[in-house]
Design brief:
4 domains, Beta-galactosidase, Chain A, domain 5, eight-stranded parallel beta sheet
């Protein structure tokens, strides 16, 4: 079938569909289901409450949006009981789900559960229809304590049996516990619902997100994938010098700067002396002279068995990570917290750092032998509250020294409390996995609010065709790029590609990061993602999908990023949008075609090179 015939068929189909929407044609099959029936009065409590009692009170905030207050109380302090609140929802026009787990599977209802805590994921699950419209979302206000969220499908009644389980792990004595459950059945796009959930979390006491400086949204160079622990001063300076040519404005010095041991593991971690970088102040100053900001990696909980500080904290560890040769500090001791905070304060002051990459926060957890009591020098019984105290104070004291300090965390440390401790959140490790980097950055963005979201450090093989290498950049294009290739060893065509796409990213950062964000089809790994406003809309296509130009008034500028090998890019216009000047770029920034076209009602086909771009301007 020729392209002209294909285009004619598409035009007829699209034209008929548009007319159907406008005239109410009975052949219009755009089905919209009614709102799912649900009443908070049907929520049940399961478990032996002992001497505690529980109260559930609900308020309808608006049609389809309910708030349920949960209060557990006793007359005296006691260990809280494990209990579950549960309800069921008919599987009515539910096609897929979303939760903040790593998984890319958003359609298998057996895997929609999530366990959240202050340092792991976030307490929210969302169900939607085929068109990405919300059907049923529930979110918990408690971002501190561990909560198990389940929504399993039961075959007998074809319903989702939703469960929130509290205090499943051993806890500390309490007299009262309260939180809120938000239940949203409104038929808005799922990304709008999740944004409102994020704003709801941020409005709670002690959940206000940290300030995000502009530096957190600058492209960065990561030393991890390309060098691992083999960090050399001259090499880092040379790479940073090269990086400035591409607009890379910061470097994250990852694991290795603090030890001469190159065997991986963390047996020598915990003294935080720059063993590989003899003169850290000079090194940082040299980078600053290049115009490059500097972030250092720290594994917050670790003190290795060979560290000089190991004996200093004997008896003040939660447990040993034997395979990695390290111990986990117990933050319930005030001297432990002060040691950690002071370490970062001194680094910020003495070395004039610009920020930190804080790692492994989730390892702050009790094990089976941990006594959850406030005694023997511990001023917290709970590890969770001690971590909250620690990280809140870290941010407070570092911002006092430098209000623009940048602090990075990576998945799964992306929950509502984490945004209080940091202002930069990165996709979890997925080296050379372009699709996973796309999915994870989109997922983190959906709950990140105004915080900066970063791609996992981007790498590719120098033997890759340049169009293939470019896919590693284009897949996480709606997040801040971190580059982890050896810049001075790139082939010339890869250099041109990197310069073009990083230049494009920096020129369009405001639209890519700070305007509307519209990811589509999570069950298909977001094959099309858009961002922008009425001035400019940027759409990246990752599979063979149409670009639907169905705005009331088309933006003045439309960019389509063709993150595929297929060169057919099809725009479907819901009406005649008039004349546009167009330019088509290859992945190295060369204009291969330009001219004027009219965006008529129907389908228009453009031939865009792999990993290239179509740019339309009115």
């Amino acid at each position: 079938m020729t392209k002209k015939i294909l285009l004619a068929i598409l035009f007829v189909l699209v034209h008929k569909n548009v007319l159907a929407q406008q005239t109410g044609d009975p052949n219009n099959y755009n089905i919209k289901s009614k709102m799912i029936d649900f009443s908070p009065d049907n929520i049940l409590v399961e478990g032996d409450l002992g001497n505690f009692k529980i109260d559930l009170t609900s308020t309808e905030l608006e049609n389809g949006l309910d708030l349920v207050k949960i209060k557990l109380s006793a007359k005296t302090e006691e260990l809280p009981p494990k209990f579950t609140i549960k309800w069921k929802v008919l599987s009515n026009d539910i096609y897929k789900f979303w939760n903040p787990d790593y998984s890319v599977d958003q359609v298998n209802f057996y895997y929609n559960s999530i366990t959240s805590s202050s340092t792991r994921h976030a307490p929210v699950i969302s169900f939607m229809d085929k068109e990405d419209l919300n059907r049923f979302t529930f979110a918990l206000a408690d971002g501190l304590n561990q909560v198990q969220m389940d929504a399993g499908l039961v075959e007998e009644d074809v319903s989702f049996h939703c469960r929130l389980t509290f205090f499943a792990k051993e806890n500390t004595p309490i007299k009262e516990y309260s939180t809120e459950l938000l239940i949203d059945r409104r038929g808005k796009p799922f990304y709008e619902i999740l944004k409102e959930v994020t704003d709801w979390w941020s409005g709670h006491k002690n959940y206000k997100p940290a300030y995000t400086p502009e530096a957190a949204k600058d492209p960065m160079y990561s030393t991890w994938y390309n060098f691992h622990q083999n960090i050399e001063v001259e090499t880092m300076l040379a790479e940073s010098r090269e990086g400035k040519k591409y607009g890379i404005d910061a470097i994250i010095i990852d694991d290795g700067w603090q030890t001469l041991d190159g065997q991986r593991g963390y047996a020598y971690t915990g003294d935080w002396q720059p063993d590989r970088i003899n003169d850290m102040p000079t090194f940082v100053n040299d980078l600053h002279l290049l115009g490059t900001k500097v972030l250092l990696w720290y594994s917050v909980p670790f003190v290795g068995k060979h560290a000089k500080n190991y004996n200093r904290f004997k008896g003040k560890y939660l447990y040993e990570w034997e395979s990695q040769g390290t111990f986990i500090l117990d933050p319930r001791y005030p001297e432990v917290r002060e040691f950690i905070i002071n370490t970062y304060e001194q680094a910020l002051i003495d070395w004039k750092l610009d920020g930190f990459k804080f790692d492994f926060l989730g390892f702050f957890r009790p094990d089976s032998d941990t006594k959850l009591t406030k005694e023997k020098g511990r001023d917290h019984a709970s590890v969770d509250t001690a971590v909250d105290d620690l990280m809140t104070e870290v941010m407070k004291r570092l911002q006092k020294i430098n209000p623009n300090v940048v602090i990075e965390f990576r998945q799964p440390y992306i929950g509502p409390l984490m945004r209080k401790y940091g202002n930069m959140f990165r996709a979890s490790d997925c080296p050379n996995m372009a699709v996973i980097n796309r999915v994870r950055t989109v997922n983190v963005r959906l709950l990140a609010g105004e915080s900066a979201v970063h791609a996992d450090p981007i790498i590719w093989n120098n033997e890759d065709p340049v169009e293939v290498a470019a896919l590693q950049l284009l897949n996480p294009i709606f997040a801040v790029p971190q580059i982890s290739v050896k810049l001075n060893q790139l082939p010339e065509d890869h250099k041109r590609m990197l310069a073009f796409w990083l230049g494009y990213w920096k020129s369009n950062r405001e639209y890519l990061l700070n305007k509307g964000f519209y990811p589509n089809d999570p069950e298909a790994l977001y094959p099309k993602v858009s961002a922008g406003d009425d001035q400019k809309m940027i759409t990246a296509i990752y599979n063979d999908v149409f670009v639907e130009n169905n705005y009331k008034e088309a933006p003045k500028n439309l960019d389509v990023l063709n993150a595929r090998k297929n060169t057919n890019v099809i725009l479907i216009n819901s009406k005649d949008f008039g004349n546009y000047h167009y330019e088509i770029f290859n992945c190295q920034g060369t204009i291969v075609e330009s001219g004027t076209t009219r965006l008529n009602l129907g389908a228009i086909l453009f031939n865009v090179p792999p990993s290239g771009m179509l740019s339309l301007k009115r």
